[in-house]
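Researcher: Sequence recovery benchmark, item below. Answer with residues only.
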C-alpha cells in the first residue's frame, strides 16, 4: 500500500519524507490556499519545491472546468516535473481531458469521486488514480469505506490498472480499514501517518525495559 501525504505544507512533507515511508503527495486548491500560495508563478514554484522533496507522484490540481482550459493547465503542470500527476475534477470535460492525457502518457488523478459509477467512468477514460473521498461521505451520513470496497471490487473484476487512492482519510481507523479493503493508496495528513506509531502498551513496555536496564547497568 502506498502512503501519500495530503498537504501543501513543506515542513509536514519533509517530516514524512524523513520518516522514510512516503510514496507521494496530494494537494488541492484548498490546501494550497491554506499555505497562502497565490498567483500562478507562486503555485508553479511551490509544486516544483514539493517535487524536489519527494521521490514519488505529486498530484497538482487544475482550476479550469472546461476541456480546453483543463488541457492547457494540465500540460503546463505536467511540464513542470516528471513527478507531477494532473488532478482533474470528476466532471464531463474532466473525463474527456483524462482520456486525452492518458493517450499522451500524462498521469492523472480523478478527484471528487463520491460514487462507484464515477470511479468506473474515470477508469474507462484511463485515469491513473481515482480519489474517492471517505471522510466527506461519512460527514453526510453515508459510508465512505463501503465506496472504497465497491471500487476495489469493480476494478478487480475487470483488471483495470487505475489505482484506488482513498482520500479524505481523517484518522488511523480509516487508514487501517482502507488497507484491509485493498485500497492501493491512502492520502492523509501527517498526524494520521504518525498516529500509526502510537500504542500505550508500546510506551509502557519501553519505559519498563529502560527502567530495568538502568537497575542493572546504572
Ligand atoms: O484529498 C482530499 C482531501 O484533501 C479532502 O480531505 O478532510 O478536506 O475532506 P477533507
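Model:
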Amino acid at each position: 500500500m502506498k502512503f501519500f501525504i495530503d498537504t501543501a505544507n513543506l515542513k509536514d512533507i519533509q517530516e514524512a519524507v524523513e520518516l522514510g515511508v512516503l510514496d507521494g503527495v496530494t494537494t488541492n486548491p484548498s490546501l494550497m490556499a491554506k499555505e497562502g500560495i497565490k498567483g500562478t508563478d507562486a503555485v508553479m514554484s511551490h509544486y516544483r519545491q514539493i517535487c524536489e522533496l519527494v521521490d514519488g507522484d505529486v498530484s497538482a490540481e487544475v482550476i479550469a472546468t472546461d476541456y480546453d482550459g483543463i488541457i492547457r493547465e494540465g500540460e503546463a503542470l505536467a511540464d513542470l516535473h516528471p513527478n507531477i500527476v494532473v488532478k482533474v475534477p470528476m466532471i464531463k470535460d474532466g473525463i474527456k481531458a483524462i482520456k486525452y492525457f492518458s493517450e499522451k502518457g500524462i498521469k492523472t488523478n480523478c478527484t471528487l469521486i463520491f460514487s462507484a459509477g464515477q470511479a468506473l467512468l474515470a477508469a474507462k477514460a484511463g485515469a491513473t488514480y481515482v480519489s474517492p473521498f471517505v471522510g466527506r461521505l461519512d460527514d453526510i451520513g453515508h459510508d465512505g469505506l463501503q465506496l472504497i470496497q465497491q471500487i476495489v471490487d469493480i476494478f478487480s473484476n475487470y483488471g483495470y490498472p487505475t489505482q484506488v487512492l482513498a482520500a479524505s482519510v481523517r484518522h488511523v481507523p480509516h487508514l487501517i480499514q482502507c488497507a484491509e479493503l485493498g485500497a492501493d493508496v491512502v492520502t492523509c495528513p501527517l498526524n494520521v501517518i504518525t498516529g500509526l506509531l502510537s500504542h500505550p502498551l508500546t510506551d509502557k513496555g519501553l519505559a519498563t525495559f529502560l527502567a530495568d536496564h538502568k537497575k542493572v547497568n546504572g
